[in-house]
Specification:
- By secondary structure, this protein is mostly helical.
- Among the domains are: about 30 residues; about 35 residues, no CATH class.
- Helix content is about 45%, strand content about 0%.
- It starts with 12 loop residues before the first helix and ends in a 5-residue tail after the last helix.
Length: about 100
């Protein structure tokens, strides 16, 4: 018996309709098929995700140091979890120089 995982991503109806249209234009039978392909390619190492600023945003030296420290803490397992539901401004405060 196989086990299935169902992911739920809350999106507006407008975004859902746009996603359905775009998926069909790209040859997918549904947005789910598109997501399955993305997950498969990601797990197989055929591509990765990268965050890139479209306006060539340069981080300050202080921000780069703060982000490097945060990454080191995550890699060492020495970090506090951030609950974005209870504190929606958490992400903005982490990247205050960027946002």
């Amino acid at each position: 018996m196989s086990s299935n995982l169902r992911l739920q991503v809350p999106i507006t109806n407008k975004i859902k309709k746009s996603l359905e249209k775009k998926a069909e234009e790209e040859g997918f039978s549904s947005p789910n098929d598109m997501v399955r392909l993305l997950i498969h390619k990601f797990l197989s190492g055929e591509f990765s995700f990268e965050i890139v600023s479209r306006n060539n945003l340069q981080l300050s030296h202080e921000t780069e140091l703060r982000l490097a420290k945060s990454i080191a803490e995550i890699n060492n397992g020495d970090y506090d979890l951030i609950d974005f539901n209870n504190n929606p401004k958490s992400l903005k405060s982490l990247y205050k120089d960027v946002l």
